[in-house]
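1st attempt posting a full record on here, be nice pls
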Amino acid sequence: MLDSDIQGTTGNDKRNRTVRDFRWDKGNIHGYYYDTRSILNKVNHCFTCDESDVKCNDPSHLLNIDIYYKEIISTLTQCADIHIPKVHKSAMKHY
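the predicted structure (as tokens):
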């Protein structure tokens, strides 16, 4: 997951661009873990080819894997937005 967020961009206008970084050291890590665990436990995708030793050639499974991946990323991002504060990139030291 990316640690920065770009907000306020419209087309090629870079003047309104605000870059923010997550402050994981200042966030509610326990709340983040609790929410990600409870939400990700509800995400379930069953693949019929999991139970056989034959190579799966079902193209719909590739789409399901992409959807499953996007659900995981979306959950992690939303929980980070809720529990982890962000600060302007310029407020952080480069090291």
